[in-house]
Amino acid sequence: MSRRLVISIWTCALLSACSHLHTTSNKDGLQATQPSTASSISKSDRGTPEEAKALLDRAIDHYKGVGRDKALSDFNSKTAGFIDRDLYVVCIDSKRKVVANGGFPQYIGGPVDLLRDASGHSMGKAIEDAANSADGKVEYAWLNPVTHVTEKKLGFFKKIGDDICGVGAYSRN
Asked: Could you say which of 17, 50, 87, 95 is the most buried, measured as most Cβ atoms within 10 Å of its Cβ?
């Protein structure tokens, strides 16, 4: 399967899961999507960078306490307490596959290298680099699953076992 086709399939999976997007076709039959409306949430409805770091620390403690399989299942569950407003846990395994994503479950099982931020930069490399750095941070633009708007995001990533897990906070600034 070609890389372009795989990227198109992942894009379609994301777009089909995002009912807030409006699809139009150009004269060549290519489709483009745009947010049909911009949702607004108050500042208190947003997770902060400090809360993102705290959720990541709690997720790592949970991973160590209950084991990998149960933790990953909990990170993907809407009811296990690892999704808070626009904060959610993302994990990537040693084979560079997404194994947890509380905000975008359609990415689970897919290669992280196909994920690109709004500027087209590879998220796989950025996440790996962050997890291997002293501060563990990466800044990027990503679709906020609560507002349905692409926003700046500050993600925090750490290695746990053979996985890399992270949580990020969105910002309108």
From this structure: 87
Q: pTM of the prediction?
A: 0.74
In this structure, what are the phi and psi dihedrals at residue 137, rounded to the nearest 5 degrees?
-110, 150
Q: C-alpha 36: how far from its chain's center?
A: 21
Domains, the chain, ordered by start: 39-171 (3.30.450.20)
- pLDDT of 45 reads 82
Residue 10: CB atoms within 10 Å: 17
DSSP structure class, residue 75: H
pLDDT tens digits, 62-79: 999 999 999 999 999 999
CB 96 within 8 A of CB 112: yes
Q: What percent of the chain has pLDDT over 90?
A: 65
What's the chain's length in residues? 173
How far apart are the two ends of the chain, measured CA to CA in Å? 39
Query: What value does the mean pLDDT take over residues 102-106?
Result: 95
pLDDT at 42 over 60: no
How far apart CA 12 and CA 18 sit, in angstroms, is 10
